[in-house]
Specification:
Largest sheet: 6 strands, mixed
Number of domains: 4
Helix content: 40-55%
Shape: elongated
Number of helices: 29
Distance between the termini: 42 Å
Radius of gyration: 32 Å
Length: 680
C-alpha cells in the first residue's frame, strides 16, 4: 500500500517516499520496469547457501494454499534523472534481485524447448520490452557483461573456465530444477511479494538506506523459532501453544533456551548444527519442521516440552528425581554441555522404559571416561556428540562401540597421567576418593606451586639447596595426578606453603582416603610422586574404564558426516586434510575438491545406483550432458560431474552420496594443523 493512500482524512501524504506492496514477478514483468545497479553498489556476493535458502522458500510457498505468499522484504529505488532513459536506480535489494534473476534464467533455459508458453512469460521478467538483447536488471559495467552472458545464455566456449558468483549460482539453480517441476517452481515464484519503496527527488537516499538496514538487534535463533512456530496460527491457537508449550519450555531452559534448541536438533538430526556467523539453529529447525499445521504442531510441541524438562535436569542435576542419576548428570557437567544431546536422548529412553537405570548409568560413565581420557592425552572433545547420537540410533551395542573407538587406551592414558597436567582435578580426586561431591574440599599441591626457599620434602634439605635440575623435575610434576590431593578447607588453610613433614599430620586427618594415606609417607619428592601416580592410575583406569569391546584409538579422525562445512573457499582450504580413511583405505587427499571428485568417481564404479539416486533427488552433481559452461569431468561415457560449487556445497554432496550408499560411517577425515586452525 502506498504511503500516499490512507483511510484517515487527517493524514498527510509523504512527500519523498512512496511504498507499495507488490507482487514481485508482476512488478518485474511490467514493460516499463528497468532496474540499474549504480556504480557505488558492492559486488554481488550471495553464495550457494543463500541460493539454497531462496529456492527452499520458493518450493515451500508453492506447496501452500492459494492465499499464502512469501515476503521478500523491501526493494528501495529512485527514479532516474530527468532526460535519461526511464529506469529505476537500485539502492537496496541488489543481492535478492540478482539472485532471483539467475533463478528465473535457470528455469527459463531448462524448459524453453519443452514449454514455449511458460518460457515466454519468464522471458518477460528477464529482458527489456522490445530489446531482447538487454536484461531488465543492469549491473554496472564492471560485471554487466558476465551477468548478461549468463542470463541471456550467450556464453562462448572461451567462458567455460570462467569463475564468478553469477556462474556458480546460476549453475546451482540449473542443477536443482528438473523440467518436471518447472511449473511448481513457477507457482512459487508467482507468490513472491515485496514492498517497492520509490524515493522522490529530494529524498535522502543514504539516510533511508541506513534506516532500513539498521533496525536494532537481530533476532536470535530461538526468537526466530518462536515466531516461525506461532506465525500463521489463529489467535486462539497462538495462545494455546504459547501457554501450554512455549512458556513451559522457556521456564525449563531459562537463559539457555538457545543452547537447548541447538542440542535438541543435534540429537534429532545426528548432525552438527552450525552457530557462528549463520542462523544455523533456526535454518535446521525449519528444515526439520517445514510445515507446521496445528495438529502436527501440538504433537511436536509435546516432545519439545518433554526434552526441555530433561534439559532443566541437566542444568540443575540436584532436581533429578533419582539421586544416583542426578549425580551422574552433575559429574558430566564437569565437562560442559557438549554431550547433552546424547544424554537427553538416553534419559528420554529411560523415562519411556526403553533403557534401564543400570544401562543408563553405564552409558553416562562411559561418556565421562571418553571425555576425561581425551582431555588427559590432549585430544579435543568438541564435535563428538553428533556421531554418538547417530550410533545410538543403531542401538546400545553400536553406541558402546562408537564410544570405545574414540576413547584413548589405558596405555596412552597412563602416560598422560604420569607427565601431563591433570584436567578437572577436583572431579577426578573426588571420585577416586569415593566422595559424592568436592564441596568442602580444596585441591592441594603437595609440592607447592611456588615453594619457598625453606620448603623441604624430607625435613633435611631445603628447596634452596636443590639443584636446578632437581627443582625443574619437581616443577614438571607439580600439576600431575601424583602431586595432587583433596584436603578440607580448614586443613588446606593450615597446609598452605608448609613443608611436607609439617603437612603429614594434616593429611592423616583428612576424610579423603587417598589423602589420609599420605600421612604414612616418610618423604616427598619425584620418586614419591611417581609411586603415587602409579597407585592412583590403577584406581583411575577402574573408575573411568574404556568399554570392553574391540575398537581402535582412532588418531582423532573425524567421521565425514561431522566434517566442518565452510563457506566459499577460505584461506588454507588446499591443505585442510592430512589424509582420508575410506573404508579401510588410506587416501592422500588434502582438500575438499579432490575429496569430492574422488568419492564420486569411486562410488560411480562401486555403488552406481547410489550416485544416480542421490543426483536424481538432489539435482546433481552428475548429469547426462554438460548443460552449461563450467568445470566438468566425464566420469563415464555420457555422464558428467559438475565441479563448480563452493566448499560447503561440495562437502554436503560428499556426505549425502556416502549416506545414500550406506558408507558414511566408514569414511573419516584427518584434519591438518591448517584445517584445525581454519574457522568454521
Amino acid at each position: 500500500m502506498s504511503t500516499e493512500t490512507t483511510n484517515s482524512p487527517d493524514a498527510v501524504a509523504a512527500r519523498n517516499v512512496a511504498a507499495t506492496a507488490v507482487n514481485t514477478i508482476g512488478w518485474l514483468s511490467a514493460s516499463e520496469t528497468t532496474i540499474v545497479v549504480p556504480v557505488y553498489q558492492r559486488q554481488y556476493r550471495w553464495d550457494i547457501g543463500a541460493c539454497e535458502q531462496l529456492l527452499g522458500d520458493i518450493r515451500a510457498v508453492a506447496d501452500t494454499d492459494d492465499g499464502q505468499t512469501h515476503f521478500l522484504g523491501s526493494i528501495l529505488s529512485t527514479a532516474a534523472p530527468v532526460g535519461d532513459d526511464p529506469h529505476l536506480v537500485l539502492i537496496d535489494g541488489q543481492q535478492r534481485l540478482t539472485t532471483l534473476m539467475l533463478l528465473i534464467a535457470a528455469l527459463h533455459h531448462t524448459l524453453r524447448s519443452d514449454d514455449p508458453a511458460l518460457a515466454a512469460e519468464l522471458e518477460r521478467v528477464l529482458v527489456r520490452h522490445g530489446d531482447p538483447a538487454r536484461t531488465k536488471l543492469r549491473p554496472h559495467r564492471a560485471w554487466a557483461e558476465v551477468f548478461e552472458s549468463v542470463v541471456l545464455d550467450r556464453r562462448s566456449p572461451a567462458d567455460a573456465q570462467r569463475e564468478s558468483r553469477f556462474d556458480d549460482n546460476y549453475a546451482f539453480f540449473r542443477s536443482q530444477i528438473r523440467p518436471d517441476e518447472a511449473a511448481h517452481i513457477w507457482r512459487g515464484l508467482q507468490k513472491l511479494e515485496h514492498v517497492s519503496i520509490t524515493l522522490g527527488g529530494e529524498a535522502n537516499a543514504q539516510q533511508i538506506f541506513e534506516s532500513l538496514n539498521s533496525t536494532g538487534e537481530p533476532l536470535r535463533d530461538h526468537e526466530l523459532i518462536h515466531n516461525y512456530v506461532l506465525m500463521g496460527l489463529s489467535h486462539a491457537e497462538q495462545t494455546e501453544i504459547e501457554r501450554d508449550y512455549w512458556l513451559p519450555i522457556e521456564a525449563a531452559t531459562g537463559e539457555q533456551i538457545g543452547s537447548f534448541w541447538r542440542h535438541y536438533l543435534v540429537m534429532r538430526t545426528g548432525r552438527e548444527v552450525t552457530v557462528a556467523g549463520e542462523r544455523g539453529v533456526y535454518d535446521t529447525f525449519r528444515h526439520e519442521f517445514p510445515r507446521l499445521g496445528i495438529e502436527a504442531l501440538r504433537a511436536h510441541a509435546v516432545q519439545w516440552r518433554e526434552y526441555a524438562d530433561i534439559y532443566r535436569l541437566l542444568l540443575e542435576p540436584s532436581d533429578a528425581p533419582d539421586a544416583g542419576i542426578g549425580e551422574q548428570f552433575a559429574f558430566l557437567g564437569t565437562f560442559g554441555r557438549g554431550t547433552y544431546p546424547l544424554v537427553m536422548r538416553l534419559y528420554a529412553d529411560h523415562l519411556h522404559a526403553l533403557l534401564g537405570r543400570a544401562a543408563l548409568i553405564e552409558h553416562l560413565e562411559q561418556l565421562q571416561s571418553l571425555l576425561l581420557r581425551r582431555a588427559i592425552v590432549g585430544l579435543p572433545v568438541d564435535r563428538l556428540v553428533a556421531r554418538l547420537c547417530r550410533a545410538a540410533d543403531d542401538g546400545a551395542e553400536a553406541l558402546v562401540h562408537a564410544i570405545a573407538r574414540i576413547t584413548p587406551s589405558d596405555e596412552r592414558t597412563r602416560i598422560g597421567l604420569k607427565y601431563s597436567e591433570l584436567p578437572h582435578p577436583a572431579y577426578v580426586l573426588t571420585r577416586l576418593a569415593g566422595l559424592g561431591s568436592p564441596a568442602g574440599f580444596d585441591v592441594e599441591h603437595i609440592v607447592p606451586l611456588s615453594p619457598s626457599d625453606e620448603w623441604t620434602g624430607d625435613g633435611v634439605r631445603r628447596w634452596a639447596e636443590y639443584t636446578d635440575d632437581e627443582q625443574n623435575a619437581h616443577r614438571a610434576l607439580t600439576h600431575t595426578l601424583g602431586n595432587l590431593a583433596l584436603l578440607e578447607h580448614d586443613l588446606a588453610d593450615r597446609a598452605f606453603d608448609a613443608s611436607f613433614p609439617d603437612k603429614r599430620a594434616l593429611y592423616a586427618a583428612s576424610a579423603a582416603g587417598p589423602t589420609a594415606a599420605l600421612g604414612s609417607v616418610e618423604a616427598w619428592g619425584t620418586a614419591a610422586i611417581a609411586a603415587r601416580t602409579e597407585e592412583l592410575t590403577r584406581r583411575f583406569v577402574e573408575v573411568w574404564r574404556r568399554p570392553a569391546v574391540v575398537g581402535i584409538d582412532d588418531d582423532n579422525l573425524t567421521p565425514v558426516l561431522d566434517a566442518k562445512k565452510r563457506r566459499g573457499w577460505p584461506r588454507g582450504w588446499q591443505r585442510e586434510f592430512d589424509y582420508v580413511e575410506f573404508r579401510g583405505e588410506h587416501w592422500e587427499v588434502s582438500d575438499v575438491k579432490y575429496l569430492f571428485h574422488r568419492v564420486f568417481q569411486r562410488l560411480w564404479a562401486d555403488s552406481r545406483e547410489s550416485v544416480i539416486d542421490f543426483s536424481a533427488r538432489r539435482g546433481g552433481p552428475v548429469y547426462p550432458a554438460k548443460a552449461w559452461n563450467g568445470h566438468w569431468d566425464e566420469i563415464a561415457e555420457g555422464q558428467f560431474l559438475y565441479l563448480g560449487w563452493d566448499s560447503k556445497y561440495m562437502l554436503s554432496a560428499v556426505q549425502g552420496v556416502l549416506d545414500e550408499a550406506g558408507w558414511a560411517s566408514e569414511v573419516f577425515v584427518k584434519y591438518s594443523y591448517i584445517g584445525d586452525a581454519m574457522g568454521d
